[in-house]
Amino acid sequence: MTSKKPRLQQGAAARRRRFWSVCLVAGSVLPAALGLAGCATEVLEQAPTDPSEPWTPAAGTTTHQPGADKSFAVGPEPAVAHIDAAPKIDSSRTYGLPELIDIAQSHNPTTRLAWLQARQAALSQGMVEATFLPMISANVVGGRQRVSSGVEIAPLPELRQPAAIVGDVIPAVSVQWLLFDFGQRRALRDAARHNSIAANVLFNGAHQKIIFDVTRAYFLYGAARSRTRIAAQTVANAREIEAAADARMSSGMGNAVEVAQAKQQVAQARFGLVQAQGEESAAYQALLTAMGISPMTKLKISDASGRALTSNFEAPTEQAIRDALARRPDVLASYRAMQAARAEVKAAQSEFMPKVFLSAVAAKGTSNLTTAGLPTIGQQGSATGFLIGATVPLYDGGLRAAQLRKAEALAESSETTFNRVRSDAVREIIVAADTLRSALASYRAASELVRAADTTRRAAAASYKAGTGSITLVTAADTGLLTASQARADAHAASLVAAANLAFVLGAMDSGATASGLLAR
Length: 521
Hints:
Blueprint: H1 4-42, E1 94-95, H2 97-107, H3 109-130, E2 135-147, E3 150-151, E4 159-160, E5 164-180, H4 184-251, H5 256-291, E6 300-301, H6 318-325, H7 329-350, E7 355-371, E8 377-391, H8 399-466, H9 471-505, H10 512-517
Parallel strand pairs: 1-6
Antiparallel strand pairs: 2-5, 3-4, 5-7, 7-8
């Protein structure tokens, strides 16, 4: 009994030491954990304190004083204060439509985005094709362990054995290869290939869209310049009538009312000129926007307002519409998306089939044992092996069935989208042809109206100067000529825009030469 009591006391002392060590660790960890929990809610101080008060990023609190005006201004961020540099422009050169299109294709960010998307789609195809190849990986596992032990025999002191150090290093090379999966990878590769082709087609389509946008903005800018010239000529005509009214007043043939009406006509013409100049500036900025360059760019641009329009127009035939459908980027991209969705259905169906794989490994191990008083003991070994296995899915809670249903729904949706895009393309072609025909007819009618209005205006001005006419007739004739001239300029630009739109919806707006050819036909 006396020999057991010291051993019990020593065991109790050891347990007490372990208990107090655990308490010490818990006492140091718990306050730290509580402090971290407090930090998670302290970040609310960085948010606005009230939904009606401004936020200031400096202190994370509002600085608004009662009775003072609230300022919701945001602090400046110098990193974002950057303006894109204007492209290199020859100030002495006048740029035509082909040159403007070339600048747009080089600087418009839309082309770069489409290019990056096409590259991403191509890389996705390459990633799928990589699954046909084996995966080889190298692994190294190493470790070091120190082992020591002691024996307590009361009342003798503790006896400790010499420490032993064991070190291991195991390098290995493993191979994993999926041999057969019932066509799943092939279906995924087909889907990726169709998506890549669609991205490439849309890349060319982005360039076609830029060519059309620049062409359209170019013609509209030309129309705005024509309206400015017409407004300036109207001011000159009004001043001519004003001078005639002053002359009649000086000779005693006129009166103050005629002079006042003439001055009013001049003021009205000047107002119209200011409006036309503002519209010209807006059209110029719209052209720069279509080109995708800095709005501070200064360009000398050629004028296309003097181009004679054709009087003969033939609507696209049914064969021409079929040819257009076969080359329109949006139709082709939609078709490729439909094919990719059908391939995804095949991939989802393959999930129900087994997969056969090959695994192989080659490893070599080195182990060393070191202990005091003994030489180091080393041991080396190697192992190689391979296996062929098959995995068969049995139950997954309906996951694969849901994935298949989803793929089938996506394929049906893609087919519906393709049919809609194709139908919309046919409708766009027919509408574009009708719009061009109507624009050409409007231009011919407006040209006749301008000739008649100009004759009327000249006759009215001549009769007024001769003293047989009234200033009211001259003013009305001048206004009629202004309206007719602006209508002809608008109809001229509308005809050119309609021709460009027809070429675009036919899928023929594929180069700057095509766009510039609209000026030569």
